[in-house]
Amino acid sequence: MFARQAFRSALQPMKTSFHRYSTEAPKSGGINTLLIAGVVGAVGAGGYYYYNTTVQSETVIPQGPSKADPAFIGGDQGWIGLKLESIETVNHNTKKLRFALPHKDNVSGLHVALINFLTAALLTKYKGPGDEKPTIRPYTPISAEDARGYLDLLVKVYPNGPMSSHLHSMNVDQRLDFKGPIPKYPWEANKHDHVALIAGGTGITPMYQLTRAIFSNPNDKTKVTLVFGNISEEDILLKREFEDLENTYPQRFRAFYLLDKPPASWTGGKGYVTKELLKAVIPGPKDGNIKVFVCGPPGLYKAVSGEKRSPQDQGELSGILQELGYSKDQVYKF
């Protein structure tokens, strides 16, 4: 955290800049990025959420797909074993893992069309030699939904995290079981005038998926504001991708980074996501058709929006967003 006086002085130009940005007429293909990374993460907006936890023991591989057939179709399809194709070290605790889809012309199947886009995740399954039950965890791929032949996961390893530890220990050509997709928030062009994304750590992956869907559709003029919190500068994931969006769409996208342990040269925000910060940089609850999305560690949910009760139940709205006057249906928790 940084001193209150310094924080206020830092917020003043943010507030001035935001209000100018929020009243600008959208320009075709505009996005503006200022990133503030914080230890707490994401703000969410209400919507439909579906989570299928049915576990089937068999692993299946679809046969004979035509071009661009989806690898994952949900329902009773069962688990699909995908081969690890490549590994990229992103930072001290994060890797990007590329898995080959069953056929080189497959797409993932995480959405049907941009006009009816569903933010979605996939379930992963692993059972170690001494495990009584398999470990199953959801991950949101960061690869484009129309990418053919592969999908990418961004995986941060956590202490005592059985799935993240297994993924970090995998070698090229090993297989992992996947199932899905798990639809989350349905999106179509211009569904909201402005969305605010509040994320922490790897909670950035569904935010990136939604942001990419918005800006890859030339008919979608939605504005996006991102507040992204992390511990250190090297923990900021997908920073280059967001900077590219900022440079390409300067009138519609802004991102604010917060760091809990910033270097001496850091000029962004410091500390945790606060009520004062969110009031200054994201659209208010009465500023039109607004949606707020939240995703991150438990501490972020508790402080910003309140936790979900279950994958199917968003729970009550509490925390900073409730104090600022947002309604439950304006917030979605990934």
From TrEMBL:
GO terms for molecular function: cytochrome-b5 reductase activity, acting on NADH. One of its GO terms (cellular component) is mitochondrial outer membrane. The chain crosses the membrane at residues 30-51. One of its GO terms (biological process) is ergosterol biosynthetic process. Its cofactor is FAD. Residues 77-188 form the FAD-binding FR-type domain. Its EC number is 1.6.2.2. Keywords: FAD, Flavoprotein, Membrane, Mitochondrion, Mitochondrion outer membrane, NAD, Oxidoreductase, Transmembrane, Transmembrane helix. Pfam families: FAD_binding_6, NAD_binding_1. It is a single-pass membrane protein. It is found in: Mitochondrion outer membrane. FAD binds at residues 137-139, 154, 156, 163-164, 205. May mediate the reduction of outer membrane cytochrome b5. This is NADH-cytochrome b5 reductase. It comes from Trichoglossum hirsutum. The gene is MCR1.
